[in-house]
Write a structure and sequence with these properties.
By secondary structure, this protein is α+β, with helices and mostly antiparallel strands. 28% of the residues lie in helices and 17% in strands. The chain is globular, with a radius of gyration of 20 Å.
Length: 312
């Protein structure tokens, strides 16, 4: 979902300058945050009751989920807290874990309403693929992750560190996998700063234009790729478009120039640093993870799914 508002800039932030270390509250490493708990927000009984009432109100009006607006999902107490969370996403560490949505007590449709309604207080929903899907299901449907047209969330394979093409991405746990499927997150700002410290030549290379696959979701007359830098500087901010599978899969597309040796070394180091600096996030049923894609990376390890449909 794209952000639709602004918050005051943190006093810790300094204007980002190309080829220099970036001073930003989102510069953290996993070891630091694993010892903290202030990134977890546990819902109170009052806040859960507000979600229950909002769901009941939507159901009573017979609204389709895509037509629900923020005003249709009032959260008198939780709403202001979500505004603070949104500020921390945008100008703080870049992520949050909301704990305690009672999905075990909800139907699948009610869980979707809860997720959607909470998200409306953080931003505006947008389509996540060429089919116009606004809510997606992360489960193994047998797709081959190596296929340039395959989205990672439709396979069971391990996914490289990446970010999504929106301001914020949300993920709610309905049921853990049978095995595997761990969620790992990392600060892309810290990845940039480590690369800038260790190999400034490779950090400079990622400021160049790269080609990203559109996963085959192409309108007539369009190129099957789009172009942008990995490290993008503008208006005093560093916004990072992770060079994961989207960049590597684009190498098979017509019209895309082949990587140089420096490109490959820089992209490899980006992933290596993410694996060095990441923090694991253990999901419980009813947890919601929100990430700010401009400063955050995420991935999921390979997993084995349950055979039963209700446990997938």
């Amino acid at each position: 979902m794209p952000d639709d508002g602004m918050f005051a800039v943190s006093l810790e932030r300094q204007p980002a300058v190309p080829l220099q270390k970036v001073i930003d509250p989102a510069d953290w490493n996993g070891e630091q945050l694993a010892r903290a708990n202030d990134w977890k927000f546990t819902l109170t009984a009052t806040e859960i009751a507000e979600i229950d009432a909002a769901i009941a109100g939507v159901e009573a009006r017979g609204l389709e989920i895509k037509d629900i607006k923020r005003e249709d999902f009032p959260l008198p107490t939780l709403g202001p807290a979500l505004a603070d969370i949104r500020g921390d996403l945008l100008e703080g560490r870049g992520f949050v874990l909301i704990r305690g949505v009672p999905v075990a007590e909800y139907s699948r449709a009610q869980s979707a309403l809860a997720f959607w309604g909470i998200g409306l207080h953080l931003g505006r929903p947008i389509s996540q693929n060429g089919q116009g899907h606004l809510l997606g299901h992360v489960k193994d449907i047998g797709n081959d992750y190596n296929d340039p047209t395959t989205r990672g969330y439709t396979s069971r394979a391990e996914i490289g560190f990446h970010c999504d093409r929106c301001d914020y991405v949300g993920l709610m746990c309905m049921h853990p996998a049978k095995s595997g499927g761990a969620s790992l997150i990392a600060s892309s700002i810290s990845v940039h700063n480590e690369m800038q410290k260790r190999r400034p030549d490779l950090a400079a290379a990622l400021c160049n234009i790269f080609h990203f696959t559109k996963h085959g979701e192409v309108k007539e007359g369009e190129d099957p790729f789009y172009c942008m830098p990995i490290f993008g500087f503008r208006d005093g901010y560093l916004s990072i478009r992770a060079g994961g599978a989207h960049v590597r899969k684009a190498q098979t597309l017509p019209g895309v120039p082949k990587f140089t040796e420096t490109d490959i070394e820089a992209l490899d180091m980006f992933q290596e640093l993410a694996k060095e600096l990441y923090m694991p996030m253990e999901f419980e049923v009813g947890d919601i993870q929100f990430l700010h894609n401009h400063v955050m990376l995420h991935t999921r390890t390979a997993f084995e799914d349950f055979e039963e449909h209700e446990k997938k």
